[in-house]
Specification:
Layout (H helix, E strand, L loop, with lengths): L12 E3 L23 E3 L23 E2 L24 E2 L45
Parallel strand pairs: 1-2, 3-4
């Protein structure tokens, strides 16, 4: 599903509740550039086999909240610029993220300038080799 909705800049809402994503391994750039996206329903989105989430929500600058509580990140190794320039994002709960296998977090929260709170207590960064600009802006 890499870049599946890439550049859909006029898309305002999207409900993926009926998507069967059981075998998906790559979601990189899936919503990248969806700058008008205000509502995104990923409640039933299965990420059990995903290894690559880089750029997934990059430039989703109209998203104010994003519910990804159900994301299983046990196999993910790359989350670089995952929330890049999500400048309207106020809330983001990533407490359930398993980051044990992550090696790249470059720019993960780059220019997420509206985030009020971000709890990273459960983040394990032992294997991370790249964190450049992770919280820039």
């Amino acid at each position: 599903m890499n870049a599946m909705f890439y550049g859909c800049s006029s898309l305002k809402e999207l409900n993926l509740n009926n998507f069967n994503s059981n075998n998906v391994r790559h979601t990189g750039g899936m919503f990248y550039g969806c700058s008008s996206l205000k509502e995104l329903n990923l409640n039933n989105f299965n990420t059990n086999n995903v290894t690559y989430m880089a750029y997934m929500f990059g430039e989703c600058s109209s998203l104010k909240e994003l519910n990804i509580d159900n994301f299983n990140t046990n196999k993910v190794t790359d989350m670089k610029v995952m929330f890049y320039e999500c400048s309207s994002l106020i809330e983001l709960n990533i407490n359930n993220f398993n980051t044990n296998n992550i090696t790249d977090m470059n720019g993960m929260f780059y220019k997420c300038s509206s985030l009020n709170e971000l709890n990273l207590n459960n983040f394990n960064t032992n294997n991370v080799t790249h964190m450049d600009c992770m919280f820039f802006g």
